[in-house]
Amino acid sequence: MGAPKQKWTAEEEAALKAGVLKHGAGKWRTILKDPEFSGVLSLRSNVDLKDKWRNMSVTANGWGSREKARLALKRSQQIPKYDDNPMALSTVVRSDEEIVDVKPLAISGGALQIDGPKRSILSRLDNLILEAITNLKDPSGSNKTSIALYIEDQYWAPPNFKRLLSAKLKYLTASGKLIKVKRKYRIAPSLAFSERRRSSGLLLLEERQKDSSRAEKYDSKILTKSQIDAELAKMRNMTAEEAAAAAARAVAEAEAAIAEAEEAAREADAAEADAEAAQAFAEAAMMTLKGRNTSKLVKIFFPHIE
DNA sequence: TTAGGGTTACAG
DNA sequence: CTGTAACCCTAA
């Protein structure tokens, strides 16, 4: 870890993360133009933002997930150094700088590919569950507690996460993506299109499409720890009016999500749970802004900082 | 303007 | 010297 030329400050990094959250990765000119971040990032160019984001992504990916074919050139004299205990590194290092990733979460290990012909219909939490089961590497399957621990350990989980997870597991099992055997869950052998009830084709198909699009919508409400981190960091740099507006927006979105979920919750309790997650975040945001219970929030979001 | 390969400066 | 992060170059 070097500290070379014009090193990025923590404020700049936070602004960059928040900017990516707001406008998306790749919209660097937009982020730079945003008066929200132009102050902190006034000394940086759009290329600088891009490079910094790449550096952060590389260092974050290096130890948590699979690696890309990136450092293929300088590989001639390094001792392979086999790790007899694969848990050792991942347990200790555990980078908490997970970068917001737009690409679908691929399961590491290479045993399974959840990709359909186009995009994966699976939601983010679904992917998290599958990732947990895959990486837990239990041949007999993983129980709900193990899955919950894995996800909570690597990502931020809402307060009602257990209930959310239960709903999701139930949903995934019912839809054939998971197989439940004696309280343990395994990934279904053929995920792609195993279930295809042709009983009443059109109606079921329509329902399914509605379901997946709804799931995608609510998925955006499930935030990783780093996303929360960036959001709160952004709020700290906001003026009171801006923060209030943002919080109001968050609350409004949560309420809309809940209303929508209630309307369609008859069969989809998973969506309802996701809406509750949205409300949880909105409440967290409100607490932060009101300065009420801030220390508790800090503890949740920044266990080792401050 | 951006994505990606390449280069340079600095820390260990 | 090696690895890393900031910086540079250029095709699309």
Automatic annotation (TrEMBL):
Pfam families: Linker_histone (PF00538), Myb_DNA-binding (PF00249). CDD domains: SANT_TRF (cd11660). It comes from the Eukaryota. This is MYB transcription factor. The keyword Transferase does not apply. One of its GO terms (cellular component) is nucleosome. Residues 1-33 form the HTH myb-type domain. The lineage of its organism: Eukaryota, Viridiplantae, Streptophyta, Embryophyta, Tracheophyta. It is found in: Chromosome; Nucleus, Nucleolus. Residues 121-189 form the H15 domain. One of its GO terms (biological process) is nucleosome assembly. Keywords: Chromosome, Coiled coil, DNA-binding, Nucleus, Transcription, Transcription regulation. GO terms for molecular function: double-stranded telomeric DNA binding. Residues 5-57 form the Myb-like domain. The keyword Coiled coil applies. Gene3D superfamilies: Homeodomain-like (1.10.10.60), Winged helix-like DNA-binding domain superfamily/Winged helix DNA-binding domain (1.10.10.10). Residues 237-281 form a coiled coil.
